[in-house]
Design a protein that fits this description.
This protein is α+β, with helices and mostly antiparallel strands and about 100 residues long. About 35% of the residues lie in helices and about 30% in strands. A four-stranded antiparallel β-sheet has the order 2-3-1-4. Helix 1 packs antiparallel against helix 3.
Amino acid sequence: MSVYTVAEITVKDPEAYAEYQAKVPATIEMYGGRYLVRGGNVTPGEGGWSPNGRIIILEFPDIESLQKWATSPEYAPVAEIRHRAADSKSFTVEGV
């Protein structure tokens, strides 16, 4: 079953975050993931939720692939760049 990670990213260091953006796609693809949303304009809907940061939605074939990517040696040094460059909130949800 596909899983989706939804993240709100608030960039603190645009230069470092640009480095992250350049390096992260290859690591995602290695584990079968792909971007569904990578930034873009946000239009608030019901409930008053109005994210202030970039919205990212990733799709992975299953939770195991997502977890392997998130803890992989390929992603670890890239994740460190993101942790320095931005604050993030995220959750993962299973698809239908």
